[in-house]
Amino acid sequence: MAVTNGARGPDGSVLDKDALKQKYREERDKRLRAEGLGQYVRAAGDFVEDPYTPVVAREPKRDHVTFTFIGGGFAGLVTGARLREAGIGGIRLIDKAGDFGGTWYWNRYPGAQCDTASLVYMPLLEETGHMPTEKYAHAPEILEHCQRIGKQFDLYEDALFHTQVTGLDWAEDRDCWVVRTDRGDEFTSQFIGMGTGPLHVAKLPGIPGIDEFRGHSFHTSRWDYDYTGGAPEGAPMAHLADKRVAIIGTGATAIQCVPHLARDAGELLVFQRTPSSVDVRDNAPTDPEWFASIATPGWQKHWLENFTANTMGVTGARHEEDLVADGWTDIAGRVKAKVLERVEATGEFDMDMVGDAFEDADFEKMEEIRARIDEVIEDPETADGLKAWYRQLCKRPCFHDEYLPAFNRANVHLVHTDGQGVERITERGVVALGEEYEVDGIIYATGFEVGSSYTDRAGYDVVGRGGLRLSDYWADGMRTMHGVHVHGFPNAFLVQLTQGSNHIANVPHNLTESGTTIAAIVLHALAEGHRTVEVTEQAEEAWLQLLLSGAEEGEDGAPRRPSRVLGSPDCTPGYYNNEGQPPARHQRYNFLGHPEGPLGFFHYIEQWRDSGDFEGLAFD
Ligand code: NDP
Fold it and tell me: H-helix or E-strand containing 69?
């Protein structure tokens, strides 16, 4: 029986949910664009040059290695580390960047910081002995941690940087992969791993005039400190003092760099299409004494499990003790509290009740976030413009304590385009709502390509047994076992988020688990003298059916994400819901996760791995 006991605003008044729903719908409709993902273009040329590390000439590789991993971010680093721990040699990591770090290599914009607590976000803290200096570490510390992992586990030894894989072909006669790159490499590898990340291809709005701009422009993932002055560590960007700068986009990236631009630019224009929800950050330095008291053997696993459990408000798995206690666990905690309240009141429980509780908790949270804007922002029109009218998980939730106050500065102007966005770029500046704004520099905080096919984003196709292309195999949707193994692609492993735990609040946790699992499989294969390992067709199909058993069917017939909000067509458009358009064929199974949620998956995979049976895999 569904029971609704209402949602209350921060002042205790009962919220008019129908009016709010109507407002959310109107705001969404304003933003829906028939062209969906087609409104963007892939950044190219100067926009994607590496501004941080010079490219060094080297001889092409023509050798054989045991394990090649494509991607030098967290996925590659944790897998490489686990392989090394297992005593496996001949590991080669490849990355298009000039060093390890993945997203933290590229995103050096001022203020870049992790949004999930460092103690659970930064992998292998226990193994490396590193104490994060803040509850939410800043980017330079995370990049340094990536380098620390690389050094400690000897992953630099054979790494290939500034190298893009162009081909991966299974050599049937030799039971190994042939790896080709844009640096002329052509070598063989018994195993391959792929962890290229979901957000690594920078995109720009597909609007006219970007190339005509006479000033300077760049994407946030290639921050041009030569132009701005300053440094990722936060030194003032002195070159901007006499400049009028535009930033386009107000997603998670802009939220973090706007306060720095506001501080340093002569004038800052923030072009907003849709406001982000910006909740309290509450960052703090780590107390070394406290850290020493919690850092007992096994501490990070304990924290990871606790965080995962506490971000699963609706399943009942929530732990009483909330170690991380942040915005992510708060969302889930509110839902759980409301469900319990209703169960106590009615003595009953059903899934509609969970949906209602989730909705009420969400309305309350978003009202608090909107009320905070009124408290902080002095100008009422600016305050109104900054308010987000959608459910919190419709877009990436943001957390920051300096973003909103930046708009009280006299040199900062919000250009609220009310869902229209920037229309064109001219030689002199930016056009929005028919008005041209002359600026010296334009910073595109317009995000990354999501929703294109895996192989398209990776920049290469994977050709498995019998010439089978991964792009063809997945044309009707991604198929894997555990999000890691694909039938027809022996000795190949994916390290990514979906079809396993799908734990979006803490992506590295997914990656570390996969890395540990892969190392166990490879060690087993090598120890037993097997040349190949491959998931069986039946096991892959059974896994897909298991994932589908936990997913609701959306109106378009494709499975919906389990939370009912993430990816919902009712949401304001964004990359979470394919810009409000029905999923393409190849996207249908992208967001499936284990029916028992992330914690259920993590418990399952640990047992699967530790049993040593590796059920579903065929070793030969
Ligand atoms: P997003 O895709 O989240 O944001 C892009 C922004 O550009 C949106 O505000 C979008 O508006 C806006 N935009 C697009 N086209 C136009 C236009 N024509 N005119 C005006 N505005 C436009 O990219 P981000 O780089 O901010 O974030 C990407 C992801 O990276 C995050 O969602 C998060 O997962 C991750 N991230 C994580 C961080 C962390 O953990 N610390 C920090 C930063 C990013 P609209 O909303 O209307 O589409």
Answer: strand 64-70
CA dist 267 and 61 (Å) reads 50
Which of 385, 412, 444 is a domain's end point?
Answer: 444
CB–CB of 83/517 below 8 Å? no
- What is the SS3 assignment for 7? coil
In a domain, 258, yes or no: yes
Q: How many helices (H) and strands (E) does the chain have?
A: 19, 21
| Helix 74-85 × helix 139-152 angle, to 10° | 30
Domain identity same for 194 and 226? no
Alpha carbon nearest to ligand 1 atom 2, residue: 447
How many domains does one find in the chain?
2
Question: Does the C-beta of 422 come closer than 6 Å to ligand 1?
Answer: yes
State the Cα–Cα distance between residues 283 and 311, nearest whole angstrom. Answer: 19
- Cα separation, 360 vs 310, in Å, equals 19
Nearest-angstrom CA–CA distance, 355 and 139: 36
Is residue 252 within 6 Å of ligand 1 at its C-beta? yes
Eight-class DSSP state of 583: P
User: Has residue 2 got a pLDDT over 60?
Assistant: no
Q: Which atom from ligand 1 is nearest to the alpha carbon of 579? A: 48
Task: Return the H-helix or E-strand segment holding 269.
Answer: strand 267-272
Among protein residues, the one whose CA lies closest to atom 20 of ligand 1 = 421
pLDDT at 5 over 80: no
Shared domain check, 226 and 143: no
CA–CA dist 391, 397 (Å, integer): 10
Residue having the nearest C-alpha atom to atom 35 of ligand 1? 252
Interval 205-250: pLDDT, tens: 999 999 999 999 999 999 999 999 999 999 999 999 999 999 999 9
Pocket lining: 574 vs ligand 1, CB cutoff 6 Å: yes
Q: For ligand 1, atom 46, which residue shows the shortest CA distance?
A: 274
Best residue among 136, 395, 446, 496 to mutate for probing ligand 1, ranked by most atoms within 8 Å of CB: 446
Give the domain range for residue 545: 64-200+450-551+592-619
Would you state the pLDDT for residue 456?
82
In this model, does residue 439 exceed pLDDT 60? Answer: yes
355 within some domain: no
pTM of the model: 0.95
The CA 282 to ligand 1 mean position distance, Å, reads 22
Higher-scoring residue by pLDDT: 568, 68: 68
Give the residue among 249, 255, 229 at the shortest CA–CA distance from 240.
229
Relative to the CA of 420, which ligand 1 atom is closest? 19
Q: How many angstroms does the Cα of residue 157 sit away from the middle of ligand 1?
A: 36
Mean per-residue pLDDT over the chain, rounded: 93
| CA distance linking residue 101 with residue 551, whole number of Å | 34
- Clarify whether residues 125 and 186 are in a common domain: yes
**Alpha helices, DSSP H, located in 86-208:** 103-106, 118-121, 125-128, 139-152
pLDDT digits (tens, 9 = 90+) for 7-33: 999 989 999 999 999 999 999 999 999
Could you give the 3-state DSSP secondary structure of residue 328? helix
User: Secondary structure of 243-270 in the HEC alphabet?
Assistant: CEEEEECCCHHHHHHHHHHHHHCCEEEE
Give the number of the atom of ligand 1 that is nearest the alpha carbon of residue 113: 41
The residue from 399, 414, 444 where one domain ends is 444
